[in-house]
Amino acid sequence: MISLALVWIAIIAFIVIMYIILDGFTLGVGLLFPWIQNSRDRDTMIATVLPVWDGNETWLVFAGAALYAGFPEAFGILMTALYLPIMLLIVGLLLRGVSFEFIHKATKSVHIWEKCFFAGSLMAVIAQGIVVGSYTQGFILDNNTGQIVAPAMLSWFNLFCALALVIGYTLLGSARLIKKTTASLQKRFFVISSRLQWVLVLVVLFVGFYSPQQNELNVLSTLHNSPFMIMFLIVISMLSIIHVIAIKKQIENIPFMALIGIFVMAYIAFVANDLPYIVPHQLTFMQAKADDGALILMIYGAAILLPLLLFYTAYAYHIFGGKVNEEIKY
C-alpha cells in the first residue's frame, strides 16, 4: 500500500528534522568554541546543552531504526554507500560525548577536552555535510561490482555542503546561546550571528537551487514553472529579514525561531527534490518498503514511542529552560 509507505516516509522525515534542529544547535555550540577564548565562558556554553544533548541524539537512533525497519533495502544500500561519512559521524559524536564527561572532571587537561569537544562536533557536521552532498547528487550503479555507490566523497559539492552545514549549525548554536546567556557573553553571540547570517542565506540558496546532474544553475529556467520554488524564495527571504532585524535590534528570542524556519524550509526542499526516490536515481520508496504487515505493526510502535519522545523532549526543554547562571561553574 502506497499510503503506508508514505506514512513511514513522513515519520522518518519528521524524526530526521527533529534531530537536525535539536542536535544541530548543540553541535553549533561546540563549533563556537574557537570564537570564545575564556574557559569560564566555554563552561557556560556547555551548561546550556548539558541537560538535553544526549536526549537530542535519541532522534538519530530512532531515525536509523525506522529506516531499517520500514525500508530495509534502502537502509542496506545507504549504509554501504555512505559507510565512511557515517563512521566519521559516529566517531565525532563519541568524541563529543566523552569530552562532555571529561571536561567537568579534568583540571589541568581541561583545554585538551575542550579541543576534543570542538573536534568531535566538527567531525560530525562535516560527515553530515558529505551525506547531504552525496544524497543531493544521487547515487550511481557501479558496473564492475553491480553495487549502488555514492559519488566521490571529497567532491567540491560535498565539501561545499559540509561548509554550509558548519555555518548553519554555528549560527543555530549562536542563536540558542543568545537565548540562554546574558550580558557581555550574549552580546558576543549577537556579533557572531550578525557576521554569519549573510553567508548562511547565500549557501542555503545555492545548495537549494544547484543541480549537480546538469552542472548549472537552472533557477531562471524553472522558477516560473515551480510554485514551490517561488514560495521557497519568499519564505526564506522573509525569515532571513526577520533574523537580520532581530539581530540588529538584539531581540533574543526571535533569531532561533527564524533559523528553525529556514532549516525546515531547506529540509522540505531537500526531501521534495528526491521524491519518490529514497535512494536518489536508483530506488523508490515503494521498491524499498517492507511488507505491508510489518509497516502496520510498526505503526502501533511508533504511535507509542513518538508521543513519548515528544513529551520527554518538550518536558526536558521546559524544565531546563531559562537563562544559565554564568556565576556558577557547572
In the CATH hierarchy, what is the superfamily? Formate dehydrogenase/DMSO reductase domain
| Inertia-based shape | globular
Q: How would you state the average pLDDT, rounded?
A: 83
User: How many beta strands in the DSSP annotation?
Assistant: 6
Determine the strand fraction and express it as a percent band: under 5%
Please tell me the total number of domains. Answer: 1
Uncertain stretches: 214-224
CATH fold name: Formate dehydrogenase/DMSO reductase fold
Question: What helical percentage do the residues reach?
Answer: over 70%
- State Rg: 20 Å
Please name the CATH architecture. Up-down Bundle
Classified by CATH, the class is Mainly Alpha
Tally of separate helices: 14
Distance between the termini: 52 Å
Largest sheet: 2 strands, antiparallel
Keywords:
single chain, 330 residues, mainly alpha, Formate dehydrogenase/DMSO reductase fold, two-stranded antiparallel ribbon, two-stranded antiparallel sheet, 14 helices, 6 strands
Folded structure, characterized:
The chain is mainly alpha-helical and 330 residues long. The chain has one domain (2-319): Formate dehydrogenase/DMSO reductase domain (Formate dehydrogenase/DMSO reductase fold, Up-down Bundle), CATH 1.20.1630.10. The chain contains 14 helices and six strands. The strands form three sheets. The protein has a two-stranded antiparallel sheet with strand order 1-2. A two-stranded antiparallel sheet has the order 3-4. A two-stranded antiparallel sheet has the order 5-6. Strand 3 and strand 4 form a beta hairpin. Helix 4 crosses helix 5, helix 7 (110-137) packs across helix 8 and helix 9 (183-209) runs antiparallel to helix 11. The longest helix has 30 residues, at 2-31. The chain is globular. The model is unreliable at 214-224 (pLDDT under 50).
